[in-house]
Amino acid sequence: MKKTLLIIGLFVMSLMGQDTQAQVTITQENYPRPHSWIDSFEVSFSSSITLPEIGANKVWNYANVLRDAKGERAHVDETNNTHFSDAINSYQADKVYGLGTITYTLPSRSYEAIDQQGWYLTGRTFEGKTVSLQSITGNSNDKVHYPPNAVNDLNGRIDILKFPLNYQDSWSGSEVYDLHFNVTVSAFNLNNVPAFTRKQKFAEREVVGYGKLTLPKPDHSATEEMDVLLVKINILSTDSHFLNGNPAPAALLNAFGLSQTDTNKQEYYAFYRPGYPASPLFFIIENGAVERVIYRYHAAEDFIGLDELDFSNSSVYPNPVSVGEEVSITVENSSGEVKVDFYDIQGRYLFQSTSPVLNSDEIKIQIPLGIKPGILFYKISDKSQGLRAMGKLEVF
Q1: pTM value?
Q2: pLDDT, tens digit, for every residue of 160-170?
């Protein structure tokens, strides 16, 4: 009996000695998707980065990852969008396509939505573009033309995250949309003939781990530990091609390196945490190995969306301003040197200016001659306090 009690006692003591972390749950209430915000991230292409170990109560330390590049993505308020009525914001998400030896980028925006079921994309828009096919066909008149302001509703739904989300949860979804264009190829007697690619996507996601995550800061120190969920993502995409409403002929597809039902498989791992609106660490996989990672060290801090900030401490004069003219931006209680980033009304990054703050709390900036007329947004930040202020001005 004493032996039995001793074994039980040792077992209880061993449990008390373990660092047993409570499971992480993500809900609509604790996962912010603000109407407008700037998503800043770092990128690493290091071949030494290993995939995260799956399982419960893990510790993932990626504080030694080295940054190779950085980027920003502006999310623009879409709550008044008349077409995508459920959209909360949109962001620039250009698509890269290939035809034979040609690779080209089609400017595009993605529109996000969120509800009690999950966070998802509700639609896309595409800007117009004409792509010459001369390098393939030899004829200077051959081309593919994408119409401007094309709107694509998504048939179906893929939840990026579902709510509530816990360890070992899994979910799937699918979506379909048609990307329309006109094609001219003299060898096939095609002159501005309507065509479209039907893009189908099927996605499977599973929460394969939970635990604590550490990331590197710009000064190479480590962030605070974050309580996170680890999600494994598998996506299968299929493209089908149509000409004049019918399946495109095989001879035409072969001429441009295409086939009916072209498929592409993608694999990712993504960490998510309550209280931050993007993945702190995202793995892009190629042939079973890490091709690159995208990480956000800010995820270890409290998140505040742009629509929650007080912009009253910033003003700009003159406003409107002409291209090439100098403007003065006043920021209360500023000193030293600040960085000012400018974006267009679609959230696309335009240019950056680094300027000292004058005694009158003023920053002097010249609008570059190449900037197109329209509404610009600016973001002011410094090394000591980070984001200081935001505002907008009109350029004519």
Answers
A1: 0.76
A2: 999 999 999 99
